[in-house]
């Protein structure tokens, strides 16, 4: 090869090597798949927390990273050797291994020496590994665990204020270990239990309520009358976001007591029998705050009045999803005593008495999903003193426009598309009325 070609080749090779070194220097070590001891040492200078992408963790690198003072999280690490686990266990702060889906007994034993919060992505544990992990003295989080049969680990988890598991089933013995009755007093009723349970026998339900006042079982689609009866009475914040069926007996039991009964995704409507049972329990004395924000239709006058009368009772008291009410419900609400929470998603309102009742209440009114209203409803709304949001109205009669033009507060009518020239002129005469840009022009 001629000398000048050899020189060019060498220069090119050196250029590539230099560029590679520069690129390597620019790589964020937290995103690296592997780390050297030198890189790990440099990472110790980062403040607050470390989230690493390493897929392999040599023990000598683990020794260095264990010295990190903040939270340490391994986002991609799926395997861990006992030597590396032992090194990580020496750290004082939190240790998060969300991708570590299984543990050998040796690794579990090594990690048990860790004294801080330990979060694991384990989905299964052998009895030996679970027994070893049970010796960990800090908080343990195993929210992805699909099955728990180890009494030792259940007893250890039961000592914590917060327990989260993915288990679909629990035996009564394991449930009692996870939920010791002394926890209610120990943690002042703030003991939480989050589980993937898909079935809830009465004895398991009783065990949970005895020691945990905040059960969240969001994979549970139904609950028997017998299981629900064990939850009647004591203070509890019950969350059953996945509930699809609710019998009258279960509904009455779950309503009875203090705290919250949160079934925010239940719907689109509740049967008349179950509605009657809930309304009766709410009328009879102390009851839990029921979150029914998933309801789309109200057919029970008694339940509608009971739920909407919880005026300004907080987010669990609202019915923001209800789009439809029956005539009987409208009549009962109009004749009810006291103030009512709003129905902002209502798509039809033909009851002037109900409109008048809402108009008489202080504060703003929002009925932004109504597309049309009869004249008598418009006249009732016109007597309201605060802000009135009717942004969904697409048309107004001349009579309705004249009535709303007399409204003393701000009125949102930005959705109007069908309006006579005379009505548009009348509405523009009130500077507090907001119209669509094309109607706002004179």
Q: Key features?
A:
442 residues, alpha/beta, five-stranded parallel β-sheet, four-stranded parallel β-sheet, 17 strands, elongated
What does this structure look like?
With 442 residues, this protein is an alpha/beta fold. It has 20 helices and 17 strands. It has helices spanning 3-26, 37-43, 59-65, 82-88, 105-111, 127-133, 151-157, 172-178, 182-186, 202-211, 225-229, 248-255, 272-284, 301-308, 327-335, 352-360, 375-381, 398-405, 421-428, 437-440; strands at residues 49-52, 71-74, 95-97, 118-120, 140-141, 162-165, 192-195, 214-216, 233-239, 257-262, 289-291, 297-298, 324-325, 365-366, 388-389, 411-413, 433-435. Residues 20-25 have low confidence and may be disordered. α5 (105-111) runs parallel beside α6 and α17 packs parallel to α18. The strands form five sheets. The protein has a five-stranded parallel beta sheet with strand order 1-2-3-4-5, with no helix packed on it. It has a four-stranded parallel beta sheet with strand order 14-15-16-17. The protein has a domain at 347-442. The chain is elongated and about 85 Å long.
Write the topology of this structure.
Blueprint: H1 3-26, H2 37-43, E1 49-52, H3 59-65, E2 71-74, H4 82-88, E3 95-97, H5 105-111, E4 118-120, H6 127-133, E5 140-141, H7 151-157, E6 162-165, H8 172-178, H9 182-186, E7 192-195, H10 202-211, E8 214-216, H11 225-229, E9 233-239, H12 248-255, E10 257-262, H13 272-284, E11 289-291, E12 297-298, H14 301-308, E13 324-325, H15 327-335, H16 352-360, E14 365-366, H17 375-381, E15 388-389, H18 398-405, E16 411-413, H19 421-428, E17 433-435, H20 437-440
Parallel strand pairs: 1-2, 2-3, 3-4, 4-5, 6-7, 7-8, 9-10, 10-11, 12-13, 14-15, 15-16, 16-17
Helix pairs in contact: 2-3, 3-4, 4-5, 5-6, 7-8, 8-10, 12-13, 13-14, 14-15, 15-16, 16-17, 17-18, 18-19
């Amino acid at each position: 090869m001629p000398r000048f070609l050899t020189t060019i080749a060498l220069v090119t090779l050196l250029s590539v090597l230099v560029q590679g070194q520069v690129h390597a220097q620019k790589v964020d070590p937290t995103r690296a798949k592997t780390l050297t001891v030198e890189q790990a040492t440099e990472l110790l200078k980062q403040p607050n927390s470390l989230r690493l992408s390493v897929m392999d963790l040599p023990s000598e690198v683990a020794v260095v990273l264990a010295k990190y003072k903040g939270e340490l999280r391994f986002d991609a690490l799926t395997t861990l050797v006992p030597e590396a686990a032992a090194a990580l266990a020496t750290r004082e702060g939190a240790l998060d291994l969300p991708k570590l889906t299984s543990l050998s007994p040796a690794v579990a034993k090594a990690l048990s020496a860790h004294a801080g919060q330990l979060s694991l992505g384990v989905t299964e544990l052998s009895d030996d590994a679970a027994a070893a992990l049970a010796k960990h003295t800090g908080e343990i989080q195993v929210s992805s665990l699909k099955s728990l049969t180890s009494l030792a680990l259940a007893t250890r988890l039961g000592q914590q204020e917060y327990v989260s598991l993915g288990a679909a089933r629990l035996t009564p013995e394991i449930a009692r270990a996870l939920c010791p009755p002394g926890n209610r007093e120990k943690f002042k009723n703030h003991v939480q239990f989050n589980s993937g349970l898909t079935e809830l026998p009465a004895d398991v339900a009783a065990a949970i309520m005895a020691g945990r006042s905040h059960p969240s079982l969001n994979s549970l689609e139904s609950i028997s009358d017998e299981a629900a009866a064990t939850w009647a009475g004591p203070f509890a914040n019950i969350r059953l976001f996945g509930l699809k069926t609710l019998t009258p007996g279960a509904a009455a039991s779950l309503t009875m007591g203090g705290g919250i009964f949160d079934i925010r995704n239940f719907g689109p409507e509740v049967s008349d029998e179950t509605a009657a049972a809930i309304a009766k329990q709410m009328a009879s004395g102390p009851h839990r705050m029921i979150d029914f924000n998933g309801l789309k239709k109200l057919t029970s006058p008694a339940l509608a009045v009971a739920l909407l009368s919880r005026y300004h009772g907080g987010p669990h008291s609202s019915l923001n999803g209800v789009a439809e009410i029956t005539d009987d419900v409208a009549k009962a609400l109009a004749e009810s005593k006291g103030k009512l929470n709003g129905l902002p998603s209502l798509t039809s309102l033909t009851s002037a008495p109900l409109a008048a009742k809402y108009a008489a209440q202080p504060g703003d009114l929002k009925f932004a999903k109504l597309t049309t209203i009869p004249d008598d409803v418009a006249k009732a709304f016109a007597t309201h003193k605060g802000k009135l949001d009717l942004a969904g109205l697409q048309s107004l009669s001349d009579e309705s426009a004249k009535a709303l033009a007399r409204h003393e507060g701000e009125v949102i009518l930005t959705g109007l598309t069908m309006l006579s020239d005379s009505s548009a002129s009348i509405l523009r005469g009130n500077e507090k009325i907001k119209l669509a840009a094309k109607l706002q022009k004179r």
